Amino acid sequence: MTTLKKTEGTITTNLEETMETMAEHLIPKDDATDDTEQQKIRLQEKEKIQTKEDREFTTEEIKNAIEELKRKKTPGEDAITAEIYERVYKQFPTTIYTIYNECLRRG
Q: What is the pTM of this model?
């Protein structure tokens, strides 16, 4: 597993720390006292997923999206390359599935 550079400049040393770092970066903390856009998202979150566009991602959709990422390309702000996504998905498909759908639910 490839290591990641954390925000304070240190490097992750094991798979668990790498996954934790990815989750912290990709899943924002929610402040219940926030009355801006996050408040709207919290209200929407209580509504059940009902339309085709709002349904959860399937494992096949997530797998296809990861496979379609461009290889050998400079990573974006998150510093996570396509190769890292692919390797993490291969080892932890259920975890990645859960993270993607949690992001979908949280908006």
A: 0.48
